[in-house]
Specification:
Blueprint lengths: L15 H29 L3 H27 L10 H16 L4 H31 L7 H23 L7 H8 L5
Length: about 180
């Protein structure tokens, strides 16, 4: 594999294998960002049950991150930092809202929607990597490994939707946020 090591966040792409490596490194950074987003959201949540859910979500992200590290070593992926810009933008948005908002159920719902956006973006990163992986014959056997990460994120995303809609926990955030909203008369 002919990869030029460039300054941080620059990756020389000259083959499908190289493009796959780039996507996989974005997935790795994406897991790091999901952990950061989840950790910051937990500090400001008013719902205890949602905090517990986020702890489980963080554990899943740590496991995916660990497996990606191992996978990247197995396929001799060059060690280079690549930024997952979509997830960095979600993290920045979460941080901006923290700076001017007080904890409330409305804010909980907003944070969970941002987290869902982050999960969707991360799932898309893995799907892109999987699409490339299926075209690269020499590493086709790793397809199920990437697919399992997509399935795990999909499951987390579905649970998050249930939390927001109020069907997973008895303290449905959507209904509470609606009741707290100043627009409801």
């Amino acid at each position: 594999m002919n990869t030029k090591v460039s300054p941080k966040n620059q990756f020389h792409i000259n083959s499908l294998t190289n493009l796959f490596s780039y996507r996989l490194l974005q997935c790795l950074d994406g897991e790091k960002q999901l952990l950061s987003i989840s950790s910051q959201i937990q500090k400001h949540l008013s719902s205890v049950s949602v905090r517990k859910y986020l702890k489980n979500l963080e554990q899943d992200a740590k496991e995916r991150q660990k497996d990606l590290h191992q996978f990247s070593q197995e396929i001799s992926l060059p060690v280079q930092e690549v930024e997952c810009k979509p997830l960095h933008s979600v993290l920045k948005e979460v941080q901006e809202i923290f700076s001017f908002s007080e904890p409330s159920t409305i804010l909980d719902t907003g944070f969970l929607l941002m987290l869902r956006e982050g999960l969707s973006m991360q799932k898309l990163q893995y799907e892109n990597a999987l699409s490339l992986l299926t075209t690269i014959h020499k590493i086709k056997e790793h397809k199920s490994r990437i697919q399992s990460k997509i399935n795990q994120i999909y499951k987390s995303e579905k649970e998050l939707i249930k939390i927001i809609e109020g069907t997973l926990f008895s303290d449905g955030l959507e209904q509470k946020a609606y009741q707290e909203s100043p627009l409801v008369t």
